[in-house]
């Protein structure tokens, strides 16, 4: 007993000693050591100071705490720096800029930029590095530093939205401990060197975002990413991924059990159908395949992804029924986005409440799907009782919108029904009175008194946004101080924040007075009502929260004596197509500091722009003063440091273009066209701001050489300089503008030769679609390398002094060889910091069929070659007939000789063909009759001979005999000269001239019969469908209405421009 007690005592003594030692060690580590290591390590502190002072730009002084003064020596206490509590080693560097403006753009004043000092490599214990949201590329060509690959302990690296340029360094593959890598949303100037082999080394990676990185040349990207066996999220949005087949995508086999999020949207040509390769991705919860080129029926394999919560198949060409598996297997699906597809059907199979989607689906987007008011659709949606967002916009829903559709949707917050054919609304269900926040009925066929309609929806106590624009509502807005009265006095709840009544027939004399009583309004839009709206000092005085007001295209009656008629919080003002002038509005001087958006185009202003306006509007982001008669000079210092878009086109401004535009860091779109600016174009682009993607200096009096510094604008996509007096040679630096889509230098005095710019194609200008050098003084040969511009589809080199042959390589223009039109193709997208993307669309002037036209929003449909009015010789290369997608070909006014291309009939898309005023000889090939879309033909003044081929389309052109004049040896209809036996083709010689004449008679009779039959079939085939197919009839009437509206608006704008031009001419 004593012995065991002794052993127990010794055991307890040892245990106490061990615990005491352990406590002492803990005390030593956590109390003594930190006191000994008082602050961060000196070499790391010095590395951070070198980063701050080694070329880093910090306009907002965010790093003010980084210094050597008293109290700030411990770098562990500096902003953005985190240290290990024990070792005091720097382990975290968080210098992200998360400050976004109201438009989703980063606030540049808070962005760090400039050089990243290499001394940062001394932070060897760094585990977290975040430089996102800064600007390291706009003013300097800063690439991702290679030494980032030396941080061997790094686990988190985020340099997204930081505007880095160049190649992604392979050294990043050394970061074997990395679990998060975000390189997304920098620019298309961030790319990889042929492959992603370095990615496969990141074996611990859970999150990978390469969105907006150019992966068009990345080989085996699927196989390399497949090596990341623990990857959970993969984001490859808008990476220009090449089209791949399903067997290749099956190489994702290693990711099927781990991947939760797959984002491949905005890769336009990625795939045709996501077939069986998706079946095994059992872990997927988020799948984004928007705008990836999908077409055909809905992929049934997606129905096997039982864990799916978010599915986005929008902006494709999917049609047909939804697979059964969607309703029975996708029981966790919360968001389903099918917008902008062709015709989704098969709703009847989901008309019962047994589908598991009924309890899970919260957001449903079916806009732009050609849906009609089918009972099956409505009953199906009525069973989705968990819905919070329902979007049925831009479909064929007609009649009165039934209350029964949404009677069970008591959680609905957003209901969008715009751009349908709805004529009325039944009262909203009472259960929505505590949930509905947004209702959009704009662009429908609502008629009658506005007060009655509002009575049907006024029982909603939570409605914050109401959109009723472009209907036929009349009357005025009623008001009552109660939030839920009954009878005719029912009105909108007092919580209303946004109200849109554009394009109706409202009574103007009381509209603003009653609206002024909705004191919580933040956004008010009543444009296009043609209202005589009385503007007084107190008309909006009660709307103290108002930030956004749109009074465009109304008849404004100004009774303003003071400058304070706008509420104090106003930031966005739309007054286009309204009578604001003739004087420049002086009230802007009082409100200018808070205004970020001012649209005042075509506002009848004929005045000098006051200097105070340019200096004081420091917060202006979007400014549009186009289509007025503004005069004066632009100041040397524009100010407006936040400016993102400036459009002052179609005015009478003069003087030189200020170099200050070069220094605006945020400026992305600059339009100074159609003014009287003169002098040299500034050659300082890229020294300050480098974010410009659109520059239009057309139709001015600009002189001097082509600016070399334009090659320093990495994001430039659209460059218009036509109709000036720019001289010198085209700078070779333009080859460095990788994103360039449109280059229009027509009607200048450029000389020299067309530059070869090294090697065309994938390396230089891979996305150039439009090249117009029309009417300059360019000479020499056409370089054969020009055909390597793989995206080029509009080439205008006319009215120059080019000589030599047409290169046979012209048959290799890849974009013109494609028969199918690609409206988007590789047009660049513009994405904000929230990841929202939209196409950067543009216009181009085209000389088609002898008429100069402005073509906009259809760049993907134009395939055109114009080499007319040069000194080209030789023959027309047969290789041109390889361009099967060509719409227009003009080779007139040259010295081309020999024969006509025999296979001209292969160009079945051709609409315009002009080969006049050359030295062509021989017969017109009979294959020309195959050009069924030909609407303009000119073969005059050549040496052509023989009979004119026949064909239905040619018959419609033969009414104009001038297209054959100057070819004395041509014969046959429609010419009076008959063909001799020797001139007839072999098949005609057998029967002689008499047989030919009889055949002509039969052809004429056959043509007349075909015309009659075509008229009858076409007329009743079209109108018969309209009579018996109600959805078609509604669509047709709506289409006609829309076209009439567009024609009317275009007519009004053109008339305004013509009046201004006539007035200018009269003044001159």
TrEMBL record:
Residues 258-416 form the Disease resistance R13L4/SHOC-2-like LRR domain. SUPFAM superfamilies: L domain-like, RNI-like. Keywords: Cell membrane, Glycoprotein, Leucine-rich repeat, Membrane, Repeat, Signal, Transmembrane, Transmembrane helix. Belongs to the RLP family. It is found in: Cell membrane. This is Leucine-rich repeat-containing N-terminal plant-type domain-containing protein. Pfam families: LRR_1, LRR_14, LRR_8, LRRNT_2. It is a single-pass type I membrane protein. Its main location: membrane. Residues 42-84 form the Leucine-rich repeat-containing N-terminal plant-type domain. GO terms for cellular component: plasma membrane. It comes from Aristolochia fimbriata. The chain crosses the membrane at residues 12-33, 1004-1028. The lineage of its organism: Eukaryota, Viridiplantae, Streptophyta, Embryophyta, Tracheophyta.
């Amino acid at each position: 007993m004593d012995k065991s007690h002794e052993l127990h005592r010794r055991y307890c003594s040892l245990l106490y000693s061990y615990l005491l030692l352990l406590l002492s060690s803990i005390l030593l580590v956590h109390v003594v050591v930190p006191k000994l290591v008082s602050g961060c390590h000196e070499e790391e502190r010095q590395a951070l100071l070198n980063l701050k002072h080694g070329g880093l730009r910090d306009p907002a002084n965010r790093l003010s705490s980084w210094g050597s003064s008293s109290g700030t020596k411990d770098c562990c206490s500096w902003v953005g720096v985190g240290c290990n509590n024990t070792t005091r080693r720097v382990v975290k560097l968080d210098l992200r800029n998360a400050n976004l403006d109201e438009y989703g753009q980063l606030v540049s004043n808070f962005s760090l930029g400039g050089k990243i000092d290499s001394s940062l490599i001394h932070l060897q214990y760094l585990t977290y590095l975040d430089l996102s949201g800064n600007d390291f590329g706009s003013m300097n060509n800063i690439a991702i530093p290679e030494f980032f690959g030396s941080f061997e302990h790094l686990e988190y690296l985020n340099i997204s939205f930081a505007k880095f340029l160049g190649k992604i360094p392979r050294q990043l593959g050394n970061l074997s401990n990395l679990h998060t890598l975000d390189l997304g949303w920098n620019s298309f100037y961030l790319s990889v060197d042929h492959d992603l082999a370095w990615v496969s080394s990141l074996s611990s990676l859970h999150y990978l975002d390469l969105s907006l990185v150019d992966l068009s040349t990345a080989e085996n990207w699927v196989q390399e990413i497949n090596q990341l066996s623990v990857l959970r999220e993969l984001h490859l949005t808008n990476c220009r991924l090449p089209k791949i087949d399903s067997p290749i995508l099956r190489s994702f086999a290693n990711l099927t059990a781990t991947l939760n999020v797959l984002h491949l949207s905005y890769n336009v040509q990625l795939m045709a159908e996501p077939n069986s390769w998706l079946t095994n991705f059992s872990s997927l919860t988020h799948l984004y395949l928007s705008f990836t080129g999908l077409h055909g029926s809905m992929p049934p394999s997606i129905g096997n992804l039982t864990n799916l919560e978010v599915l986005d198949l929008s902006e494709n060409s999917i049609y047909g029924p939804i697979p059964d598996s969607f309703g029975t297997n996708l029981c966790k699906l919360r968001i389903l986005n099918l917008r902008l597809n062709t015709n989704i059907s098969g709703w009847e199979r989901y008309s019962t409440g047994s589908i598991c989607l009924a309890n899970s689906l919260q957001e449903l987007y079916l806009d732009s799907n050609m849906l009609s008011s089918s009972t099956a659709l409505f009953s199906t949606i009525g069973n989705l009782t968990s819905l919070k967002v329902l979007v049925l916009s831009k479909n064929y829903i007609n009649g009165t919108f039934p209350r029964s559709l949404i009677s069970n949707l008591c959680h609905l917050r957003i209901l969008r029904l715009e751009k349908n054919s709805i004529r009325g609304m039944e009262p909203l269900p009472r259960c929505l009175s505590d949930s509905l926040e947004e209702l959009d009925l704009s662009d429908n066929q609502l008629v009658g008194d506005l007060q009655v309609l509002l009575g049907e929806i006024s029982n909603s106590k939570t409605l914050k946004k109401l959109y009723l624009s472009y209907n036929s509502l009349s009357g005025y807005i009623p008001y009552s101080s109660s939030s839920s009265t009954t009878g005719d006095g029912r009105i909108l709840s007092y919580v209303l924040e946004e109200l849109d009544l554009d394009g109706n027939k409202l009574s103007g004399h009381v509209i603003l007075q009653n609206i002024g009583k909705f004191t919580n309004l933040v956004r008010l839009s009543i444009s296009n009502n043609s209202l005589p709206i009385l503007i007084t000092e107190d008309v909006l005085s009660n709307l103290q929260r108002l930030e956004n007001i749109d009074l465009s295209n109304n008849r404004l009656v100004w009774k303003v004596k003071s400058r304070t008629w706008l509420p104090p919080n106003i930031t966005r003002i739309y007054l286009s197509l309204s009578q604001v002038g003739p004087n420049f509005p002086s009230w802007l001087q009082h409100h200018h500091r808070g205004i970020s958006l001012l649209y005042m185009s075509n506002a009848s202003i004929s005045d000098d722009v006051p200097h105070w306006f340019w200096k004081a509007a420091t917060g202006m982001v979007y400014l549009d003063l186009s289509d007025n008669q503004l005069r004066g000079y632009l100041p040397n210092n524009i100010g407006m440091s936040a400016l993102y878009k400036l459009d002052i086109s179609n005015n009478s401004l003069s003087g030189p273009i200020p170099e200050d535009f070069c220094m605006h860091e945020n400026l992305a779109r600059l339009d100074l066209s159609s003014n009287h600016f003169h002098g040299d174009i500034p050659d300082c682009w890229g020294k300050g701001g480098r974010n410009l993607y659109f520059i239009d200096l057309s139709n001015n009096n600009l002189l001097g050489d082509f600016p070399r510094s334009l090659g320093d604008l990495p994001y430039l996509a659209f460059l218009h300089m036509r109709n000036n007096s720019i001289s010198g040679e085209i700078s070779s630096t333009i080859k460095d503008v990788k994103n360039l889509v449109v280059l229009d230098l027509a009607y200048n005095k450029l000389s020299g030769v067309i530059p070869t710019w090294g090697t065309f194609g994938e390396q230089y200008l891979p996305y150039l679609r439009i090249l117009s050098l029309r009417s300059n003084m360019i000479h020499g040969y056409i370089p054969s390398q020009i055909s390597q511009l793989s995206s080029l589809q509009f080439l205008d080199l006319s009215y120059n002094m080019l000589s030599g042959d047409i290169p046979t390589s012209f048959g290799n223009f890849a974009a013109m060889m494609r028969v199918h039109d690609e409206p988007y193709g590789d047009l660049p997208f513009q994405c904000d910091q929230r990841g929202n993307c939209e196409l950067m669309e543009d216009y181009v002037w085209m000389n088609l069929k002898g008429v100069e036209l402005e073509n906009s929003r259809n760049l993907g449909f134009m395939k055109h070659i114009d080499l007319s009015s040069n000194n080209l010789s030789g023959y027309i290369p047969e290789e041109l007939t390889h361009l099967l997608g060509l719409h227009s070909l003009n080779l007139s006014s040259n010295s081309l000789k020999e024969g006509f291309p025999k296979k001209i009939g292969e160009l079945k898309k051709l609409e315009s063909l002009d080969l006049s005023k050359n030295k062509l000889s021989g017969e017109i090939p009979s294959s020309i009759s195959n050009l069924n879309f030909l609407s303009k033909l000119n073969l005059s003044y050549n040496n052509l001979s023989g009979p004119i081929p026949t064909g239905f389309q040619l018959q419609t052109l033969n009414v104009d005999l001038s297209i054959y004049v100057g070819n004395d040896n041509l014969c046959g209809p429609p010419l009076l000269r008959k063909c001799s036996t020797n001139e007839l083709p072999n098949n005609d010689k057998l029967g002689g001239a008499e047989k030919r004449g009889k055949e002509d008679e039969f052809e004429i009779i056959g043509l007349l019969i075909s015309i009659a039959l075509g008229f009858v079939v076409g007329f009743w085939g079209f109108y018969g469908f309209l009579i018996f197919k109600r959805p078609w009839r509604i669509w047709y009437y709506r289409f006609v209405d829309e076209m009439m509206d567009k024609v009317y608006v275009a007519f009004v704008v053109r008339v305004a421009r013509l009046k201004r031009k006539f007035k200018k001419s009269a003044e001159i």
